[in-house]
Amino acid sequence: MSMIRRVPWVIKYRPRRINDVVNQEEAKRKLLAWIKSWPNVKKKAALLWGPPGSGKTSLVEAIAKELKYELIEMNASDFRRASDIERIAITAARRTSIFGARSKIILLDEVDGLQGRADLGGLEAIVKLIEISRHPVIMTANDPWDPKLRPLRNIAEFIEFKKLRESDVVKVLKRICSAENLVCEEDALRFIAQRSEGDLRSAINDLEAIAEGVGKVSLNIAKTILRPRDREHNPFETLRAIFSSKYAWQAKLAASQSQLDYDQLIEWLNENVPYYITDYEELWRAYEALSRASVYRGRIIKSGNWDLLSYVMDLATAGVALSQKVPRYKWARLKFPEKIKRMAETKEVRELREEIAGLIARHIHTSRRLVKSDVLPFLRVIFENNPRYAAKIALGLNMTDKMIQYLAGSKYNEVSKYVKYFSEMTKKTVETKLIQKEPSKKTPKAKKKTKKEPESSLLSYMKK
Ligand SMILES: Nc1ncnc2c1ncn2[C@@H]1O[C@H](COP(=O)(O)OP(=O)(O)OP(=O)(O)O)[C@@H](O)[C@H]1O
Ligand SMILES: [Mg+2]
């Protein structure tokens, strides 16, 4: 199990000092000048853009370490919602008073990872954070022309990171070879660098895969182990490769060449392990590895410590592959994971549920989670059994048709009849009141109608 303890090289050899970041001299100069004169700068934020694995995140981390800034680091998945961003801003502001004068940098990593409608609020919140922040905000992205990032143009300094040259990549690989006491042929390193197309992260990963598997890096071995990068493996190919791996590195390589990310990979494995492995003891070991992977996955989410990801990957790949005493090439019909299928099928309903929960949570000042567990079930009972009362609630909370449909189920027609009735009533009552305020205009008709359903409580609720 010793391999499971190891830290991947991309993390182990992350630049610790600004000088360790190769190339990118212009970006370094610009960013350093900007940060040192903060807050006396034209633009309060900086956006570092450039190809993957070129040192954006690394440079910010190195600057923080060397200049002794406290780094508050967040990834796109952490700032989906406006409330998250507010929390960061508040935490950052607050911490000053507790820990004294130590300056901070807020790093919002991979802002172009914000996607689609659900994240719209995220970008607005970033803009707001930049406006109110008392600390420099640095963002990273790959594509500066992404229309999503347009709102940032006027408030962020755009700093370009160049694609690394082959010689830069070779330089770093050599450094690692000597630190690891590895015999590395120069040709092999050049081959790896060429293949990485300037992405140092992938070059380091390739070097590690070869070194771990063979212990020596020669051009021949590099060519055999590293398949052309032109095609990513589909889930079926990935799973077959993992189940037939003899060595840990083969299984890990299969995962790194896959279209699947690690979450999806775990789902695929969860679903398919029993089709592939039939021996009970082996099956037990495979699921043991997967469940441990999932424990680490949970810890990453709780703690934000992404260094644990290497354990997740090792357990899910090598852990599963080596649960078999003898890895066999065996044909099995692999299945698409039920969970992913179900999640896709129920996406709309889950979103609607979230919306309703959010709506109610805002009104009664509690969490969505509490609403989902303690309020929604009762609301459903009300909507299914007392359409008249349900309609009042729906109107009071300004629910959409879809929300009513979700809560009322087969009683939807009845509830919506009442909704129409009450909202017309309300309109008329308001009109009457308006007319009443004007002196001496007779409106006997309207007055009569309001008597039919006195809705003072509903009206007062809606006025809030
Ligand atoms: N210029 C560089 N100098 C030294 N090491 C680098 C450099 N660029 C990348 N690396 C190495 O590659 C790894 C990934 O780099 P980093 O996370 O900084 O890339 P990035 O530009 O932020 O990429 P992405 O856009 O994918 O987030 C680092 O851990 C580091 O080991
Ligand atoms: Mg990065």
Mean pLDDT: 83
Total number of beta strands: 5
By CATH, the architecture of one domain is named: 3-Layer(aba) Sandwich
Strand proportion: 5-15%
CATH topology of one domain: Rossmann fold
What would your notes on this structure say?
By secondary structure, this protein is mainly alpha-helical. Among the domains are: 24-160, P-loop containing nucleotide triphosphate hydrolases (Rossmann fold); 348-463, no CATH class. Helices cover 61% and strands 6% of the residues. It is built from 22 helices and five strands. The protein has helices at 9-12, 25-37, 56-66, 82-99, 120-132, 166-179, 186-196, 200-214, 219-225, 235-243, 248-256, 262-276, 280-303, 309-321, 338-345, 347-364, 368-385, 387-396, 401-408, 412-437, 444-452, 456-463, and strands at residues 45-49, 70-75, 104-109, 137-141, 156-160. Helix 10 runs antiparallel to helix 11. The longest helix is centred in the last third of the chain and has 26 residues, at 412-437. It is flat, with a radius of gyration of 29 Å. The termini are far apart. The site of adenosine-5'-triphosphate (ATP) has 24 residues, from helix 3 and helix 8. Residues 10, 13-15, 20-24, 52-58, 110, 140, 142, 164, 172, 200-201, 204 line the site of adenosine-5'-triphosphate.
